[in-house]
């Protein structure tokens, strides 16, 4: 069927009529109709190119030709479920698990980050026979019921039903606003003490954790880099209580952090379960759970695990192409170099713009926190809103906000974001910040 192009007003009206209202529209005061993408750019219906600094999903670049070709070729050959033998599925599982330290050698393929985290929860509960979960404050781990339960970002916010009985929330290790701050070498250990407290509170009721969820860099928490040794200590406390440890790499995996493929590696730990999503398929809906032989073996308890779409040949082909591009285009190193260039530049801007309270990040996963006063750290969410609006309107740059106070400029562009893109962003940010006063 031929789809007739509609104007934006019609699309908004029709969308409101027939698509659930809980779904939001980005830049709602002036929504975009995006019809194409290339590298780090999105292209609208008028042919205008927008510099995309939001989309970590299209990790190797919008519409990367190698990924598109892999999808097209496999789509034309065959798509089935994973119950038939297929070379690509096995090759992909080999290539993917090769990216992880021992004993993380087994994968399950699913279709979204939420599905991956839900399966991880099942694996952990099945393995240890425990039910309870420890999560970090302000975290988001997915939209399934089981994951809203472990996502303070959702259950503690507007429309949320509060913290469920089986969930314990550990203090967010925030080196900018928290109890222990930048420069405190013991901060990681001290923040992890709260994980211990949660474990002890469970023990007091005769309970043990099944799983602790954490990200290697905290996304919805405000793009926060974990203090050194935080995960080392947190994992120890959870494991001593019989629980497993999960690294949610859905947002940050696949080399975005620059120094490593996975953010958990920057903390020198090996989780029991890792979940992958978003960048894994460069926009194609796929995700994975990586775990140990031992945990996978206890899950094979007689009940079959079947997933209609997970691991289908098209997804596996796409996944392989993404891994190839990351390797061949040296995207991890690129994230490292351009990310540091951006953070150095933003720190230089902080010398002239008092409103920049903190610049932090790893590779191309960066947060710039805006404050009205560096002493009181009063958040500047309205100012950030203006900055994002002006960067879009006047400079064609797409960005979004994050953090409990909605005052953190969240930066996670497609990895091909170039040094020239970086310098253009910094010049534009300088101009917009100068216009605020
Ligand atoms: N975990 C994290 C850290 C995420 O950021 C997200 C998505 N924002 C999810 C899980 C859920 O992934 P999905 O939307 O693919 O279900």
From TrEMBL:
GO molecular function: 2,2-dialkylglycine decarboxylase (pyruvate) activity; pyridoxal phosphate binding; transaminase activity
Highest taxon of the lineage: Bacteria
Entry keyword set: Lyase, Pyridoxal phosphate
Coiled coil: none
Similarity remark: Belongs to the class-III pyridoxal-phosphate-dependent aminotransferase family.
Protein name per UniProt: 2,2-dialkylglycine decarboxylase
Gene: dgdA_1
Range covered out of full length: 573 to 1009 of 1009
